Hints:
Elements: H1 2-17, H2 22-33, H3 41-66, H4 68-88, H5 92-120, H6 123-150, H7 153-173, H8 194-199, H9 203-230, H10 236-285, H11 291-305, H12 308-314, H13 316-320, H14 322-353, H15 359-380
Helix pairs in contact: 1-5, 1-6, 1-7, 2-6, 3-4, 3-5, 3-14, 4-5, 4-7, 5-14, 6-7, 6-10, 6-12, 9-10, 9-11, 9-14, 9-15, 10-11, 10-12, 10-15
Amino acid sequence: MYSLLLLIIYLAFISLGLPDSLLGAGWPVMHTDLTVPLSFMGIVSMVISGGTIISSLLSAKLTRKIGTPLVTVLSVFLTAIALLGFSFAQQFWLLLVFAIPYGLGAGAIDAALNNYVALHYTSRHMSWLHCFWGVGTIVSPFVMSYALDNGTWHLGYRIVAIIQLGIALLLLVTLPVWKITKQKKELPAVNLSFRNILKIQGVPVLLAGFFAYCAAEATAMYWASTYLVAVKGVTTAEAAQFAALFYIGLTVGRFLSGFMMNALGDRKMILLGTAIVALGIVALLLPVENARVDLVGFIIIGLGCAPIYPCIIHSTPQNFGAENSGTIIGIQMAAAYLGTTFIPPLFGVLGNRISFAILPIFLAIFILLMISMVELTFKITNKN
């Protein structure tokens, strides 16, 4: 039963990843059909991010009231309905309307499941959980590609919405399986305000570190292609293929690092991942003309990033107590979405004004900030 529940949670995280790369895959066609500028994708993503930030901050209260299983089921249903709305949208403003429930559903399930796995499972499973999120992000562009070849972008959203509905129904009928963890004695969750959480020693430092990591990861994801085209002179088609390998490196890295996490522990895995990211950044900084070196650099960065996110999340109950982890992880998710929403556009502004060649330096600054803050968190909480 314990293994069955784990499979259900993995499936829920696939459902979380499925919509995440759908907008980017379909937008080159969507913006034309909706007669809006290409840049308007940023408006949609900002509305989605706003919803995720709000629901992440409220997730602990919601989980205390109805429990993680129901939060998960309702969140997947909410995102399925939102995606179905996207699939029927004929005007841009309708995308913004349905982006609200999409963001609310995604943020709630992200925070609730991350906390649940951090409390009940080892760091190995936390890594594999995020690996399954990566599976979802890899699958959906192929769904959109199929839809564009055989119909319209609406079909792509409809297919993913139907998949989401199927997953939500499966989660609903398997709700009794979640009772298996009731056998494990837990400390009751403490209902602390946002202000009181920030007063806990080490929490503000942790949030700064998590914000910095997510900012670096998202910047590498979004700007790898532009960097390769503008700085290394590769074609746009080649750049798209090269950049996709960052996602694959991230997903494969999370699968492989899962085998090492129980032996090394969260802190050592974060340090190892940071060292690997540093090697990738060095590869980007090498004064060579061969773009293959940069390709390898982005793959190495993806592999290095793999354990950092799940290990920071998994270490939260140990660092701050299981009774506080739900609220803190919800705030961590909000910090993550702030980093992924605002820092990549900031790099775009700097790249246009200075040069996109500053990408490795930009990434290095945020990675350095991340590891400094995370290490300080472990020292403050006296965790080895």
